[in-house]
Amino acid sequence: MATSSIASLNSPSRLLSIPKEPYPSSHFSSNLLKFAAPRTPSSSVSCSLTRDPASVLPLEQRVELNNGALLHQRPDSFGRFGKFGGKYVPETLMHALTELEAAFHSLTADEDFQRELAGILKDYVGRESPLYFAERLTEHYKRPNGEGPHIYLKREDLNHTGAHKINNAVAQALLAKSLGKKRIIAETGAGQHGVATATVCARFGLECIIYMGAQDMERQALNVFRMRLLGAEVRPVHAGTATLKDATSEAIRDWVTNVETTHYILGSVAGPHPYPMMVREFHAVIGKETRKQALEKWGGLPDVLIACVGGGSNAMGLFHEFVDDKDVRLIGVEAAGFGLDSGKHAATLTKGEVGVLHGAMSYLLQDDDGQIVEPHSISAGLDYPGVGPEHSFLKDLGRAEYYSITDEEALEAFKRVSRLEGIIPALETSHALAYLEKVCPTLPNGTKVVLNFSGRGDKDVQTAIKYLKV
Amino acid sequence: MAIALKSSCFFQVKKPEAGFPVYFSSKKAIISVKRNTPVAAIRTMETVGLSETFSRLKKQGKVAFIPYITAGDPDLSTTAEALKVLDSCGSDIIELGVPYSDPLADGPVIQAAATRSLARGTNFNAIISMLKEVTPQLSCPVALFSYYNPILKRGTDKFMSTIRDSGVHGLVVPDVPLEETEILRTEAKKNGIELVLLTTPTTPIDRMKAIVDAAEGFVYLVSSVGVTGARASVSDKVQALLQEIKEATSKPVAVGFGISKPEHVEQVAGWGADGVIVGSAMVKILGDAKSPQEGLKELENFTRSLKSALP
User: Fold this and answer.
1) CA dist., res. B286 & res. B72, Å (int)
2) Residue A239 with chain B: CB contacts under 8 Å
3) Which residues from A are below 8 Å from B154, CB to CB?
4) How far is B292 from A464, CA to CA, in rounded Å?
5) C-alpha–C-alpha distance, residues B107 and B38, integer Å
């Protein structure tokens, strides 16, 4: 596979290409050597060669990192990331999943599809999203001696619909059309994925049904209205805890029943294979742009990537590009709700155990009987008792680190960033922003931190009003 | 050999004060005074397993009647009674559902039953205690219906041995596809549990063949593309599917999902099914009833009407 220059990275059609032949491992390791970006960035060498943005690793290769650790195929042909992932769904869905996977692979290698998708991402979604140097936040984290990290925000909030969710929704809608499916279903927590799905269904003329927990509908009323205005039917789910996990279960049931006419646009990197891989690939544009933008801005790689983790889609979208760059630190931030010891949180990777939920083996919050526990977070989008299997894999491998932030800390960050940068973050994103308080004091001078600003907070003002005095 | 006398449907109303064990969500069954055992069913030993049951029925030219109920709805005592009612009314195998928080394959009726059961505090240990008491009194085998996570949580080997010890013969796990069943099958075999596998109208033929090859106990043919829940009629695709499966295997095939009336039962049996499974319709009766006693009585009547539609 030829290495591509920066120029080719600019052309949108390269953003989603998938190699047909296996990655020769020698090519890989030589590129890794080129990419050994040191932690202390001041002397970083600018890398003029980048590897092909086609980053779906073909099926049977193992990649050896510089330190000799083996990074297995992500995922392998069974849809597993190590022991995580898989397809734990009723038999009725198995054929549809196989079809979906085949369609995904053939379409992503299809130039016309890529061109169409790239065009939509550019003209409709508004990509590429800026990598913004947060001057006042950086100032805020400067230590008394003037040293501190440099904070950059990857502005997914500037996408159409105000979050990263649209990247995946747009691509899956195109995929559904090519499969001849006219009916779209989706689950939603905060409503951002629901809005993104309703948006693309309006754009492509598809029937749209969104399942949303009744409790979530209350706390995100603005998004419910938006979905309906966009022409979607929003169905409240009262079963179980009436939140995201129940909406997901109900969406899966609908899919089991209507699988022949319906495509299920799953909103995160969770669920049965091929969804974790597909959704990651559709969000991988975030990381790809970041690599290019980082190169342009400071001639190197980011040192630290930070993103909030609910199901894990915005995090995987940013991280994926850099997983094989071993010196890039990957940090995911989950919701600690009322606190990790309160029993009312959604810190799956910190407090969960391995199990099967919604089709994938992953960490999840469960009780002694294996019943799924109701999580809590002030942010609906992080309020999920599971997590994408690839995150579970990266955690166990030690490649990525996961921490958690409480409701209170998130609300403080919500206010702080609004004041310091004039950008109101989504409550989900606020969790990642809150983590800056903890990590920045530990980072050497000049460390390049890129934080995925996954969404804007307009949808959260009702919630914030309840808790904040402004 | 079970010395079971299955006379005409017989059941006694058991009120908790009469000394019937009451199963709480705590780990032990609280057995108060002496239990009344139904006179008509005297058993001294274990029942035979699922496959053996089917073989026997086949020899008699009969089709198996397989009801399903959710454990713990309205409560475990009623479940225990219901098991006995179903048995004495002529059920050939009974499926017992372990309530789960996120039942992907279940429609609103069974979902609601699971939610009610869990809200009452039903847990796995309580279900096992109840089964230990009840299975020796049954003349037909019990198969558990459980989602995968509770099995994983316990540890597959431990789960299998625990259910075997409680007298259960078979297991159905609706959210584990063939590819992932290897461990389950190994542990099931090791512990003497027959692992039933499901095939559906969307399953391509080659895959169906692999499934029926691996299935133990019987092959569960899901009658429709969807979740559990009564339907107005049974799809006539089932007839063709049954034929396809029977060409691929001599193992018994039972049809389930959506079957709720004697006409359905008769139709499916007529198409060549070796067994007919009725779930939501049963669960609805117990769930909607004004009292457990009324529910059990209705269950008895309903079971009789379904059973009489079968050869």
Assistant:
1) 11
2) 108, 111, 115
3) 370
4) 47
5) 34
Q: Residue B231: its chain A contacts at CB < 8 A?
A: none
Angle subtended by helix axes B292-307 and B280-288, to nearest 10? 150
Amino acid at A414: F
Model pLDDT for residues B65-116, shown as the tens digit of each residue: 999 999 999 999 999 999 999 999 999 999 999 999 999 999 999 999 999 9
Q: What is the amino acid identity at position A115?
A: R
Task: Give the C-alpha separation, B197 to B218, whole Å.
Answer: 8
Per DSSP bridges, beta strands B194-199 and A84-85 are unpaired
Candidates B98, B117, B118, B149: best to mutate against A (most CBs of A within 10 A) is B149
Q: What is the DSSP string of B226-255?
A: S-S---SS--THHHHHHHHHHHH--S-EEE
List the pLDDT tens digit at each of the 470 positions of chain A: 333 343 333 343 333 443 333 333 333 333 333 333 333 333 333 333 333 333 333 333 444 444 444 455 789 988 999 999 999 999 999 999 999 999 999 999 999 999 999 999 999 999 999 999 999 999 999 999 999 999 999 999 999 999 999 999 999 999 999 889 999 999 998 888 999 999 999 999 999 999 999 988 987 888 999 999 999 999 999 987 888 889 999 999 999 889 889 999 999 999 999 999 999 999 999 999 999 999 999 999 999 999 999 999 999 999 999 999 999 999 999 999 999 999 999 999 999 999 999 999 999 999 999 999 989 999 988 989 999 999 999 999 999 999 999 999 999 999 999 999 999 999 999 999 999 999 999 999 999 999 999 999 998 988 899 888 76
Tell me the DSSP string of A252-277: HHHHHHHTTTEEE---SS-SSTTHHH
Using an 8 Å Cβ cutoff, are A337 and A376 in contact?
yes
Beta bridge partners of A233: A209
The catalytically annotated residue of A87, A165, A245, A351 is: A165
Q: What is the ipTM of this complex?
A: 0.84
Indicate if the pLDDT at residue B13 is higher than 60: no
Residue with tokens 């699988």: A259
Rounded-to-integer distance, Cα A411 and Cα A378, Å: 9
**Measured between CA atoms, how close is A273 to chain B, in angstroms?**
12
Where would I find the H helices in A262-421? 275-283, 285-298, 313-319, 348-351, 389-397, 407-421
Kindly state the DSSP code that residue A456 receives in the 8-state scheme: B
Question: What is the rounded CA–CA span in Å between residue A321 and residue A330?
Answer: 11
> Is residue A3 helix, strand or coil?
coil
Number of helices (H) and strands (E), helices first, in chain B?
12, 10
CB contact under 8 A, B153 and A96: no
For B163-186, b where at least 16 C-beta lie within 10 A, e where not — what string? bbebbbbbbbbbbbbbebbeebbe
* Dist. CA B91–CA B139, nearest whole Å: 9
Place of tokens 């990197």: A269
Contact B198 A91 (CB under 8 A): yes
CA distance B169 to chain A (A): 21
Q: How far is CA A95 from the centre of its chain?
A: 26
**B200 within 8 A of A91, measured Cβ to Cβ:** yes
